[in-house]
Design a protein that fits this description.
By secondary structure, the protein is α/β, with parallel strands linked by helices. It has helices spanning 7-23, 27-38, 98-110, 118-126, 133-151, 155-158, 182-195, 210-224, 240-252, 272-275, and strands at 45-62, 70-82, 87-92, 171-174, 176-177, 200-204, 229-233, 258-259. It is elongated.
Length: 276
């Protein structure tokens, strides 16, 4: 068999393979796909509504970079309604303009469309949303909720079936709380989570100095015991130098990972490669 000797020959070969593949799609296969789509329920999206939920807390809490600490807990829900009465729900965080993106840009693109045409809708949503994954994710979640209900299938089956029957989880329950020192709060919370049956715990770090929080980490490991998995989230509070210092300490205490130690918009964002 003659081998292609230059780039032009390779391109010709590739184009020929694509053309051959397209030709191999028989009219029968195309008709079968059209017949399958004809069996879908004829649904139409009639309304898209966002709901901002807020709950006032007894004590302000937050992450390392929360200034001041948050006095409310919030979430953004998205409800998509159809002409059949089927409803889908999605959820996201109400930050970075997510609600405005949903209400002004994404909702108009959905009205009148069939939610079962998932790929068509997905492509249209990513066009006008200016890269806001928080907004698109909530809408996509609601669409898939409707798809599962309309077809009588778990959402996992819509994407080729579940890969596993169980998923490991962790509890994120160690936040900075107003009026309580972390030296007291973190070990106490960790011990409570272990007694509740949790096998993995994630905590916020980075609000105070590395030297102070390392002592707290030691107390947490003692309270949780050697068999509980521990993880940390810096929420972008560290410089490169302090991130390296903290990472070494976390490794000594058997932590699984340190999430987002440096700011995502940092000039040294490529430094994450060094942290590895």
């Amino acid at each position: 068999m003659t081998q292609p000797t230059n780039r032009r020959d390779l391109l010709k070969l590739g184009a020929g393979a694509v053309a051959g593949g397209l030709a191999a799609i028989s009219p029968t296969a195309v008709q079968a796909e059209a017949d399958d789509r004809a069996k879908w329920p004829d649904l139409k999206i009639t309304k898209v509504t966002s709901y901002l939920l807020e709950c006032e807390l007894e004590r302000a809490f937050g992450a390392s970079v929360s200034v001041p600490l948050d006095k409310t807990r919030d979430a953004l829900l998205v409800k998509i309604e159809t002409d059949s009465g089927l409803v889908g729900w999605g959820e996201t965080s109400p930050i970075s303009g997510a609600r405005g993106t949903i209400d002004k840009f994404l909702a108009p693109r959905l009205i009148g469309n069939n939610p079962l045409e998932y790929r068509k809708l997905w492509r249209s949503l990513w066009g006008p949303n200016f890269g806001n994954g928080l907004a698109t994710g909530a809408v996509e979640m609601a669409i898939n909720d409707i798809r599962g209900k309309a077809l009588g299938m778990p959402v996992a089956e819509l994407f080729g079936g579940r890969f596993r029957d169980k998923v490991p989880v962790y509890v994120s329950a160690l936040d900075y709380v107003e009026g309580i020192d972390i030296e007291k709060w973190y070990p106490m919370r960790a011990e409570k989570m272990v007694k509740a049956g949790h096998k993995a715990i994630k905590m916020r770090l980075g609000r105070y100095s590395v030297a102070r929080e390392v002592k707290v980490i030691k107390s947490i490991r003692k309270a949780a015991g050697p068999d509980v998995k521990l993880m940390a989230d810096g929420n972008g509070a560290y410089t490169m130098g302090n991130a390296l210092k903290m990472a070494h300490h976390l490794r000594d205490f058997g932590f699984e990972f340190l999430e987002e130690p440096m700011p995502q918009r940092s000039n040294n964002y490529p430094g994450y490669d060094r942290l590895r």
